[in-house]
Amino acid sequence: MSIIYAAKPQKLNPNKPKNKKDWDIWEEIETCSSNESLLKSQGWETSPTNNLSSVLFNRFHCPASVTSRQMKRALAQAGKLSLIEGYIASLPEPNKTVVSIEWKDSNEFIRTYPLLNNMALLMGMSQADLDQIFILASTL
Question: Cβ(125)–Cβ(75) under 8 Å?
Fold first, then answer.
């Protein structure tokens, strides 16, 4: 059973933090991953890593979508663009064609889009890594 980490605002700060340093005054716990859905229903924010400050700050500041140009520039800047192109080239048909069309013809990339999340997962990128790419892309 894996461990997850969770944060919940203390009574002095009942709102979601606005700045990364605000996470320092949140109450943190370690728990088993089987408790994750219960924790979320009780208002806890969860993460697979104990670096809650960065992970949760990024989660709340990650844009919902970015343009195709922004995404590709961010991936190039992060050294991940060739990984994606290599991954697409390695797919069997008809998946290769479908994913290639999505990659080449999309006007925007939506953070919650399942195909994007699955590609990231299969290439070894965590959700936090993908958040970072979206945050970087939004600045380009």
Answer: no
